[in-house]
Design goal:
Blueprint (H helix, E strand, L loop, with lengths): L2 H20 L10 E12 L4 H9 L6 E11 L7 E6 L10 E4 L22 E7 L11 E4 H5 L24 E5 L16 E7 L5 E5 L12 E5 L5 E4 L8 E12 L2 E8 L17 H9 L10 E4 L1 H6 L4 E14 L7 E14 L32 H6 L7
Parallel strand pairs: 1-16, 5-13
Antiparallel strand pairs: 1-2, 2-7, 3-4, 3-8, 5-6, 8-9, 10-11, 11-14, 12-13, 12-15, 15-16
Keywords: Signal
Protein name: DUF3344 domain-containing protein
Length: 399
């Protein structure tokens, strides 16, 4: 072997030996900063805050609102609450900058506390239905006893739920800033657009910059509505498809009476009766949505109507119905490898309604649509918990 080949072989062997001895190349360091932009369009009951609710009570149709949440997390701790600014495009219509402020609130799950002294184990049950169709399928409803659930007796298949990726949040020894915050929380105009160049200037992160295109803007309202009832009693739920939606999921919660305790009626559009369907009303990545469409837990983006089964419609005539249209995501990084910052923009659209509700009757005195006010001096009649009770949290599953 000539001298050059021997030298090359020796160096190669030494390099291989070093790899074995020292292990693989070290992983690149994580980004200094992670920035998330969450943009949502909401329509129907409760959207637009008190002004939107007032409009619906006055019979002026479904309210629509838009919301924007900015969250910056950093491995560099901040020294003040003022950590930076988001500089949006003029098309957002919210001024030249949105201030990012830290928070003194403890992150979720870190507050200390225990059961209140007057805690009483819940008494009642939850009846769970699933699937779009004129009638429910076999094995329905799944009945869950609240007391057993509170004691840790979880039905098979209900231990794991669908969860979205977690955005940045406050943590000890790390920097954090968010908008809206206690100093700036103005409403997002309905005419707002995310399209254009965005940048972040912050004391806890390198400069961040990215540009959004037309397919990465606020999603349109879904205009969820009941579109009539079949002779069987099944109700047609319809919505206006969103062009950029990756899939849809619907859920219903209603109240009933059963055996002296609370009875909660729950339904989802999923083809499977799992806990996943009850936890999917939030942002999910397009890849995760695709998996859930394949497994039958999410409706395809081409679907624009779902039949609420007759059994569910009868059990929950005033059920609170929600729909979410999952949207696209846009991901950015400062560099392909070992970026100093990464950013994510995620989108969704949602809507809600109360079944059979004439919104102009929302202000009547007994909380029941079309009901008569109570007569003075007469004991109140026992009634089911109404949609108002549901919204106030008077009837709520214990998880």
């Amino acid at each position: 072997m000539n001298q050059h080949l021997w030298s090359f072989a020796s160096r190669s062997g030494l390099a291989a030996a070093m790899v074995v001895l020292l292990g693989a190349a070290p992983a690149p360091p994580p980004p200094i900063a992670t920035y998330w932009v969450s943009a949502s369009t909401d329509s129907g009951l409760g959207s637009g805050g008190s002004a939107g609710m007032a409009a619906m009570m006055a019979g002026r149709g479904s309210a629509v609102s838009r919301s924007l949440t900015l969250q910056l997390g950093s491995r560099q701790p901040g020294t003040t609450l003022e950590v930076g600014d988001h500089l949006p495009p003029a098309s957002l219509g919210m001024g030249p900058s949105l201030p990012l402020l830290g928070t003194t609130k403890a992150p979720p799950g870190e507050q200390l506390g225990g059961m209140p002294r007057d805690y009483q184990r819940p008494n009642g049950r939850m009846l769970i239905y699933w699937g779009c169709g004129e009638h429910v399928g076999p094995g329905q409803p799944l009945v869950i006893d609240f007391a057993k659930l509170a004691a840790g007796q979880v039905p098979p298949g209900w231990g794991a739920v669908v969860s979205s990726a977690l955005p940045p949040r406050p943590a000890a020894g790390r920097g954090y800033g968010e908008w809206p915050n206690e100093r700036s929380s103005r409403a997002v105009p309905l005419s707002a657009s995310l399209v254009g160049a965005h940048s972040v200037r912050s004391s806890i992160s390198p400069p961040i910059g990215f540009t959004l295109g037309a397919g990465q803007d606020f999603m349109p309202a879904l205009d969820l509505a009941e579109r009539g009832t079949l002779p069987s009693g099944a109700a047609r739920l319809g919505w206006r498809p969103a062009p950029t939606a990756t899939g849809y999921a619907l859920s219903l919660m209603g109240a009933g009476e059963g055996g002296g305790g609370t009875e909660v009626i729950v339904w989802s559009s999923s083809r499977t009766g799992s806990a996943n369907a009850l936890t999917m009303m939030d942002y999910l990545s397009p890849a995760r949505v695709h998996q859930l469409i394949t497994s039958g837990q999410v409706l395809a983006p081409t679907v624009s109507e779902c039949l609420l089964p007759a059994e569910v419609a009868k059990a929950a005539p005033q059920g609170f119905v929600r729909i979410i249209g999952f949207g696209p995501e846009a991901n950015f990084a400062e560099a392909p490898r070992a970026p100093k910052w990464v950013a994510k923009v995620r989108l969704k659209t949602s809507a809600s309604l109360i079944r059979g509700m004439d919104m102009s009757g929302m202000g009547n005195t007994n909380g029941m649509p079309g009901g008569e006010p109570g007569q003075p001096g007469q004991p109140a009649k026992r009634r089911r918990p109404s949609w108002k009770d549901m919204l106030k949290g008077a009837v709520r599953p214990p998880f």
